[in-house]
Amino acid sequence: MSGAAGREAAMGAPARVPALTLLRVFWRTLFLQAAWNRRGMQNLGFAYAIDPALRALYSDPARRAAALARHLGFFNCHPYMAAAIVGGAIHHEERVAAGEEPEQLPNQYKSTLQGPLAAIGDGFFWTALRPFFGALAALGALLFGGAAIVVALVIYNVLHFALRAGLFHAGYEHGDALVPQIARLSLPLTADRLRAAGAALCGAAAAVVALRAGAGGGAPALAVAALAATAGYAALARGARLLPTAYVAALAGICAAAVAGHFHWSS
Amino acid sequence: MGYLLLGLIAGLAAVERKGFLQAMLSRPIALAPVAGWALGDAQGGLLLAPPLELLWLGSVNLGAALPAHEALGTAAITGGAVLAGRAAGGVSPEVALLAVLICAPLALLGRKADRLVEIWNERLARRAEAELAVGHVRAAVRTNVYGLALPFAIAAVLAPIGAAVAAAIIPAFLAALPGAATPLRLGFVAFAGIACASGAKALRARQAPTFFYATFAAVLVLGVAAGRLP
């Protein structure tokens, strides 16, 4: 046990961070990217999130400041997955405060996990789960109106908060043993399926748009919607830029109708 | 009052988008109906929500990459459409398309503004380190939340400006060219079609083309065969 840690133990610092403080830390993880910057990336957010736990662990202001300085170093991860690392860092800080681990261990833990968890989080949440629910909500809104949006967002947030809170808890309880817990979730495999399902939802949405256009404007409107969706996908897949392509498609639609002259729109 | 409300909603959405929460509340699918409802036309927001969500489905923060600011674009487009719709008899597809054409570039301007926010946040990071160096631990920690101010302010200012431009141009344009309404409706259909394609493209699945085209064809055939268009 180091001299400083021994003094902390003698001062009666808690061995475990109280549950309410953990809740506070979890709440603060929601602000992880509030001051995202290219120098330290999420460093300010991480220090802000973990501060209540450090306050509970270090009654000595000098040790608390030193601990905070550790967590002001570079940090970048997926904002949801980072909850696991915040939990794990508290796991290690408890042991540092008790003199059971060296002071550099929390940072080693962070730097080891931030890259892999960022990759998993980006791949699962940002490029699969969220777009899937976005596409689901969009198709639902086209078919059933605003209620479908509410349902889709509620399901997304129940899932996302359950995972976020579960990851925070797993990091805090298991520390280094967090990795097998995350591996058991099979997130990359689930992500692949969600992406494929999301693409299918977009196809269904395109068909609904075309059918609706056809109902209002007849076969020419249906054809324009179908052409925009199919040729648009081909163009975007070949690297066409999104907004210019969308402008071209809209203007092509306008020109087609203008040229047709006597285009009928009954709705 | 409408512009103030729009500014507030756009600012909050800009904060939710990256700095706090990230629960899809700033995504176009949620933001457009909310902005429309706040301005008195939830249906107008609902008309825009699906195509805008699908158009910007791939707009995500991956690492240090900055995507288009879909929340700012959506707030300006919806605000512009609803405010223009007041003078043009509601948010019709032609009003919605003109609002998109006028305000969508704000999403790209928002991306540039995000870079400025990052530079500003670097100053905040240095300030936190300086506070900590002199023992002001609480002040150092609090610095993080100051990072929410600039994204809020930028979106709160730019969205109403974009909406105001759209609200000024659209009714005048439609009044001057009444014959343009029908072609613009078809333009909106084309825009909605390519938005769906953009959504599928954003999903980056190896089999995305197969799933997109196959589902499109199947639903289209079923819809036509059923003879009852949705």
Summary tags:
heterodimer; A: 267 residues; mainly alpha; 10 helices; elongated; disordered C terminus; B: 230 residues; globular
Helicity of chain A, in percent? over 70%
Number of helices of chain A: 10
* SS-derived structural category of chain A: mainly alpha
**Beta-strand content of chain A:** under 5%
Order of helices and strands of chain A: HHHHHHHHHH
Number-wise, the strands of chain B total 0
Mean pLDDT of chain A: 92
Please count the beta strands of chain A (DSSP E, at least 2 residues each): 0
Helix count from the secondary structure assignment of chain B: 10
User: Into how many domains do the coordinates of chain B divide?
Assistant: 1
Which spans of chain B of ≥5 residues are poorly predicted at pLDDT below 50? none
Structural class of chain B: mainly alpha
Tell me which protein chains meet in the greatest interface and how many residues each side has.
A-B, 106 and 98 residues
Task: Note down, in words, how this protein is organized.
The complex is a heterodimer of chains A (267) and B (230). Chain A is mainly α and 267 residues long. Chain A has a domain at 3-113. Chain A has ten helices and no strands. In chain A, 55% of the residues are buried. Chain B is mostly helical and 230 residues long. Chain B has one domain (2-226). The mean pLDDT of chain B is 95.
